[in-house]
């Protein structure tokens, strides 16, 4: 018998108070990988206490770095000299966190070789890494496969022109981290423009990299022979901010999201305002106020600055209790509707058709036993449970813990009724 955590949620009415939005998961994982680029002692601040950060810390440790969690969101990483680095990401770690492919760029740049276990699909469909490989190949590396590992080698990276077929977030990060130490100039066309890519570029620039055009679709990197150490504060997590916004939107109430930034989530906030949610930005964070009477809107997910795919389960959940019919289209990940079956168990009236969902809102949700299949699906189920009659039990909490620090405690402080419980299960479950 092993134990796994579940969340038990009951409706508790409107939410009030203030919550600090933590550092962005999808930034910090890449920032940690970027410390492999330079020998010395790096300091990262505002690092969230989430499982994915611990897995990347373990990966850096296997590469030869020393990682110290000194408390209060500060992490110190000591990166060894090149000859003491083991340029490898094992299957055990890549299987746990697909973002670990992001060590490919820094390790190739630093060690001229890298071995990374081939990532499989995940809970929302197949997620290839062909753009990463093509991009790194354009910078003078070659790849082969052996025993489930992808092996990259280079005589020394050289600048090149990379045209991404799609503005892939992590492929942009990976190529950027390789290009900063390549010989000559690299141009990344159709680059991702996410705030987390800008955060990475800002940290690299502070380490001595020469990068132009970040935040636009054309990034130009002038390679330098070496970089210095990083001292960097992680930007706030816009998806975590969106999760608390959604919780208040459906429950009603008034909450201040400390450090949340409107400029990182403009399109989503535009959609949320059309739903009837009051949102006000201040230099210190975002106020959200809701009477819990939401209106239908149509939403399509797109690369930044469009509405991010990571918000999609939250958006569908909000619309399932809104007045009217909405259509939501998912344009990034084919399998990202799997959680909808769980929302239906709770009484949501949702029909899927290819990559579209039609939501007939104003459903009265009821508590049920549901399973979180990935991080964002999991948090969307919490949001639904906050307004579902009776008790909801959410399993698969380990997925939620990958990206949210003690979410239940933070929601409880705002007035939600949510508890974490350990339940036994058979090894074979
Ligand atoms: N794609 C390819 N080939 C590639 C890379 C991507 O075909 O080599 C496709 C993907 O299959 C997808 C599209 O390109 O259809 C975009 O994928 P992208 O590469 O941008 O996604 P990612 O970088 O792997 C990051 C976040 C995801 C987030 C997406 C989209 C990290 C660690 N992950 O993934 O975050 O959904 O960008 O914004 O940064 C999450 O936090 O829950 C999460 C899944």
| CATH fourth-tier homologous superfamily of the largest domain | Enolpyruvate transferase domain
- Cofactors and ligands: uridine-diphosphate-2(N-acetylglucosaminyl) butyric acid
What does the largest sheet look like? Answer: 4 strands, mixed
Overall mean pLDDT stands at 95
Task: Indicate the CATH topology of the largest domain.
Answer: UDP-n-acetylglucosamine1-carboxyvinyl-transferase, Chain
Task: Report how far apart the termini are.
Answer: 10 Å
State the helicity in percent bands.
25-40%
Topology:
Layout: E1 2-10, E2 15-20, H1 25-34, E3 40-45, H2 51-63, E4 66-71, E5 74-79, E6 88-89, H3 91-96, H4 104-111, E7 113-117, H5 130-138, E8 141-146, E9 149-154, E10 161-163, H6 169-179, E11 185-189, H7 195-206, E12 210-212, E13 218-222, E14 231-233, H8 238-251, E15 253-258, H9 266-274, E16 278-282, E17 285-290, E18 299-300, H10 312-320, E19 325-329, H11 340-345, E20 349-353, E21 356-360, E22 369-371, H12 375-386, E23 392-395, H13 397-403, H14 407-413, E24 417-425
Parallel strand pairs: 2-15, 3-14, 6-7, 10-11, 18-19, 22-23
Antiparallel strand pairs: 1-23, 1-24, 3-5, 4-5, 7-9, 8-9, 11-13, 12-13, 15-17, 16-17, 19-21, 20-21
Helix pairs in contact: 1-2, 1-7, 4-6, 5-6, 6-7, 8-10, 8-12, 10-12, 12-13
The structure holds uridine-diphosphate-2(N-acetylglucosaminyl) butyric acid.
What does this protein look like?
The chain has 429 residues and is an alpha/beta fold. It folds into two domains: 4-22 and 236-423, Enolpyruvate transferase domain (UDP-n-acetylglucosamine1-carboxyvinyl-transferase, Chain, Alpha-beta prism); 25-233, Enolpyruvate transferase domain (UDP-n-acetylglucosamine1-carboxyvinyl-transferase, Chain, Alpha-beta prism), CATH 3.65.10.10. It is 31% helix and 28% strand. The protein has helices at residues 25-34, 51-63, 91-96, 104-111, 130-138, 169-179, 195-206, 238-251, 266-274, 312-320, 340-345, 375-386, 397-403, 407-413; strands spanning 2-10, 15-20, 40-45, 66-71, 74-79, 88-89, 113-117, 141-146, 149-154, 161-163, 185-189, 210-212, 218-222, 231-233, 253-258, 278-282, 285-290, 299-300, 325-329, 349-353, 356-360, 369-371, 392-395, 417-425. The strands form six sheets. The protein has a four-stranded mixed sheet. A four-stranded mixed sheet has the order 2-15-17-16. Strand 10, helix 6 (169-179) and strand 11 (185-189) form a beta-alpha-beta unit. Helix 1 packs parallel to helix 2, helix 5 packs parallel to helix 6 (169-179) and helix 6 packs parallel to helix 7 (195-206). It is globular and about 60 Å long. The mean pLDDT is 95. Uridine-diphosphate-2(N-acetylglucosaminyl) butyric acid is lined by residues 25-26, 29, 99, 127-132, 166, 168-171, 308-310, 332-333, 375-376, 403.
């Amino acid at each position: 018998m092993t134990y796994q955590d579940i969340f038990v949620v009951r409706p508790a009415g409107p939410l009030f108070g203030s919550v600090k939005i933590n550092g962005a998961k999808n930034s910090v994982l890449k920032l940690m990988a970027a410390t492999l680029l330079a020998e010395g002692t790096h300091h990262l601040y505002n690092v969230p206490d989430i499982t994915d950060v611990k897995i990347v810390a373990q990966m850096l440790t296997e590469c030869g770095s020393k990682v110290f969690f000194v408390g209060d969101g500060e992490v110190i990483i000591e990166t060894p000299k090149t000859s003491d680095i083991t340029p490898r990401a094992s299957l055990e770690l890549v299987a746990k966190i697909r973002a670990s492919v992001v060590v490919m760029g820094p390790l190739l740049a630093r060690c001229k070789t890298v071995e990374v276990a081939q990532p499989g699909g995940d809970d929302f469909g197949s997620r290839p890494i062909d753009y990463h490989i093509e991009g790194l190949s354009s910078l003078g590396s070659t790849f082969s496969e052996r025993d489930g590992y992808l092996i990259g080698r280079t005589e020394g990276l050289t600048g090149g022109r990379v045209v991404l077929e799609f503005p892939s977030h992590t492929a942009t990060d990976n190529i950027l981290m390789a290009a900063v130490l390549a010989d000559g100039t690299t141009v990344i066309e159709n680059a991702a423009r996410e705030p987390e890519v800008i955060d990475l570029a800002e940290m690299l620039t502070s380490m001595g990299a020469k990068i132009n055009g970040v935040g636009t679709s054309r990034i130009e990197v002038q390679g330098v022979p070496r970089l210095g150490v990083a001292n960097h504060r992680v930007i706030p997590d816009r998806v975590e901010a969106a999760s608390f916004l959604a919780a208040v939107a459906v429950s009603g109430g008034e909450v201040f999201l400390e450090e949340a930034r409107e400029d990182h989530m403009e399109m989503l906030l535009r959609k949320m305002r059309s739903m009837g949610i009051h949102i006000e930005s201040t230099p210190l964070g975002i106020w959200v106020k809701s009477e819990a009477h939401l209106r239908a809107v149509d939403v399509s997910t797109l690369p930044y600055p469009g509405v991010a795919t990571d918000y999609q389960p939250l958006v569908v959940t909000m619309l399932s209790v809104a007045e009217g019919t909405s259509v939501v289209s998912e344009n990034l990940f084919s399998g990202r509707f799997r959680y909808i079956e769980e929302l239906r168990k709770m009484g949501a009236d949702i029909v899927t058709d290819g990559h579209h969902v039609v939501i007939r809102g104003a459903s009265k949700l009821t508590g049920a036993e549901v399973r979180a299949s990935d991080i964002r699906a999991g948090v969307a189920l919490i949001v639904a449970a906050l307004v579902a009659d009776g008790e909801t039990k959410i399993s698969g909490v380990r997925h939620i813990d990958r990206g949210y620090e003690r979410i239940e405690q933070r929601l409880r402080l705002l007035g939600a009724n949510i508890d974490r419980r350990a339940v036994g299960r058979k090894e074979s479950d």
